[in-house]
Write a structure and sequence with these properties.
Helices cover about 55% and strands about 15% of the residues. The protein contains 9 helices and 7 strands; from the N terminus they run ααααααααβββββββα. The longest helix is centred in the first third of the chain and has 37 residues.
């Protein structure tokens, strides 16, 4: 008898889950536990750093080892009598939101491992020692830590495949489709967490370049465009180099600082978006110019090309 396709996929889910739980055990019970033990002696690295590297890996490990894997095993042993896994995966899905925190912390964890490996030879030696063990299969700590980041997309793929292979009249169809939808929402949640983290990091870099002026630093702002621009002075018919930062709620008109200590730009003018008007100027002497007028004042600006001018106006 040929095994039905959906059973093969369910078995693959079980096998990969078993391997995944082993990987989580390695991260939590071996790497994290041994680094923590050493940290407590005060010789390698502060305890806080170990906690920051491993984030909430312990909760993730406990959940998979004590709940999801045993449930899945019971299901597969009972498959011939009750061929379904959709309802078990529905129980799993809400807990996958725990991954948001781990995924968000991942880049920071990688930076910490690198920084402390350089700073603390005993820290580096302990990691190298664990990596030499058979259980690590010649892979680095960083490589093992990537596994939880890739696990949710893996569930999504396996479950999609499972739903595709289910016979139309399968008793698991309704549950499996609902489970897939739930996993899809969690994957979106985890991707949104990463996107939000990147947005805030980029925003912070911009604020540092602007000298962290209080009235500008706001986490809800969104940077839309930035770049150099020429300011036209009608008084003496000349131009000078300026720099624009366009946010969702304001335009910052800046000048590059000559001595770049700390901030890179000096904010000369902040124009609110509300009531702002933008129009192209047909100026033969200064091509690619446009006017930006706000409540505060009006700027006559020149871009380097027509393309660039249109991009700013848009």
């Amino acid at each position: 008898m040929q095994e039905p396709e959906e059973k093969k996929i369910a078995l693959e889910l079980l096998e990969t889950e078993q391997a995944y739980v082993n990987r989580l055990h390695l991260l939590d019970q071996v790497f994290c536990a041994e680094l923590m033990k050493e940290a407590k002696t005060g010789k390698t690295v502060p305890e806080e750093v170990v906690k920051m590297i491993f984030s909430n890996i312990s909760s993730i490990y406990q959940f998979h080892a004590k709940f999801f894997l045993p449930e899945l095993q019971k299901r597969m042993e009972d498959w011939n009598r009750n061929p379904r896994i959709g309802d078990v995966i529905q129980k799993l899905a809400p807990f996958l939101k725990m991954y948001g925190e781990y995924v968000k912390n991942f880049d920071k964890a990688m930076e910490l491992i690198t920084a402390w490996s350089e700073k603390s030879p005993p820290f580096q030696e302990l990691i190298a020692d664990i990596q030499k063990r058979k259980v690590c299969a010649n892979l680095t700590l960083q490589h093992h830590m990537l596994e939880p980041v890739q696990r949710i997309p893996r569930y999504e793929l396996l479950l999609k495949d499972y739903v595709r292979k289910l016979p139309p009249q399968s008793p698991d169809r309704g549950d499996a489709e609902k489970a897939l939808e739930m996993i899809f929402m969690v994957a979106k949640h985890s991707n949104a967490a990463i996107a939000e983290m990147e947005r805030l990091q980029n925003l912070w870099v911009v604020y540092q370049r602007l000298g962290l002026e209080d009235d500008i630093v706001d986490p809800s702002n969104e940077l839309i465009k930035e770049g150099p621009i020429q300011k036209i002075s009608t008084r003496n018919n000349s131009t000078s180099e300026k720099y624009l930062f366009l946010f969702n709620n304001m335009l910052l008109y800046c000048a590059p600082k000559v001595i770049q200590v700390g901030a890179e730009f000096q904010v000369h003018l902040r124009m609110d978006m509300e009531g702002m008007k933008v129009q192209e100027l047909k100026d033969t002497e200064f091509p690619h110019t446009f006017l930006v007028s706000g409540k505060q004042r009006t700027l006559e600006l020149q871009a380097r090309s027509e393309e660039e001018m249109n991009a700013w106006i848009k």
